[in-house]
Amino acid sequence: MTVRLPRRAARVAVLDPAGAVLLLRYDNPEVGVHWAMPGGGLEPGETPRAGALREVREETGWSDIEPGPLLCTWEHDFTRGTVPVRQREHIYVAHAPRRPLAGDLSAAHAGDGILSARWWTPPELAAADEAMWPPSLAALLADLRAHGPRDPAPDLGYVPHHR
Fold first, then answer.
1. Domain range for 127
2. How many domains does the chain have?
3. In a domain, 163, yes or no
């Protein structure tokens, strides 16, 4: 059995006015290629909201994104560098205009295994056959559109990845 270090992280579901979400395409040696929202590990003493804000700036180049309500929390396993981790993520919602990433992000993206970025419309996300983190992202965003933020936000618990 693999021993996994606990890791705390935060992400932001950046939604455009039509409900499309910005996703980054990551490549990870353990779980493979997948799509996820901008985000990553928290620094020591950092709150999830502060980490989400920092991470979205680092990975998009946008300095005007403010994390709003919590969409969900969840846990999953992957390898960070050479270290197996079990990551607990807080995923926040933010609204912004649809636009390209800003600035030269090549070094930051290379370090995090980010291959590309794209906006996914709700129908595209619902029909996607590519791996998404969390796997229930399309349903979570559909519920958000239909009912608004949940209080408390859903805790998806531990979700295994299927390669």
1. 5-152
2. 1
3. no
The token duo for 9 is 């992280």
- First vs last C-alpha separation in the chain: 18
Give the pLDDT of residue 39: 97
Three-state secondary structure call for residue 86: strand
Residue 48 near residue 153 (C-beta atoms within 8 A): no
User: For residue 29, what are the CA distances in angstroms to 1, 34, 84, 148, 158?
Assistant: 18, 11, 11, 36, 20
Residue 11 forms part of a structural domain: yes
Read off the CATH number of the domain in which 143 is found. Answer: 3.90.79.10
Per-residue model confidence (pLDDT) at position 142: 97
> Residue 74: inside a domain, yes or no?
yes
- pLDDT score recorded for residue 1: 78
What was the pLDDT predicted at 163?
59
Q: Which residues of the chain have pLDDT under 70?
A: 163
